[in-house]
Amino acid sequence: MSVLERIQAEVEGHPVVLFMKGTPQFPMCGFSSRAIQALTEAGATQLHTVNVLEDPEVRANLPRFSNWPTFPQLFIHGELIGGCDITVELFESGELARMISETQAS
User: CATH number, domain at 45?
Assistant: First the structure.
């Protein structure tokens, strides 16, 4: 399985996926930490995370897969939502909680 197929499988296999630096318990950058905090506060209980620091192939190829250059990267229902800034903006507007509740209802 190629790295792009592995990324595709992660994105399709979970309703909410965050590719991040570190883990939810130990984020390794401020942007990943803020994204996790916003997702947690928005009620994301079924959040799947991928630590890109543990998988250099995913870290190198995810920007090509998603057309998004930075980390973290949030996918909901297989669709790229964006990085930290977009995730936090969606949280502040209440939109992230709505999107998360839809994933957990389905």
Answer: 3.40.30.10
Enumerate the H helices of the chain as residue ranges: 3-13, 30-41, 56-66, 84-93, 95-105
Q: What is the pLDDT of residue 52?
A: 98
Number of folded domains in the chain?
A: 1
pLDDT in tens, 12-32: 999 999 999 999 999 999 999
Pairing of strands 47-51, 16-20: parallel
Q: Is 98 one of the annotated binding-site residues?
A: no
Q: Is 59 a known ligand-binding residue?
A: yes
Taking the complete model, does pTM exceed 0.90, yes or no?
yes
* Domain carrying residue 42: 3-105
Distance between CA 43 and CA 69 in Å, rounded? Answer: 27
| 71 annotated to bind ligand | yes
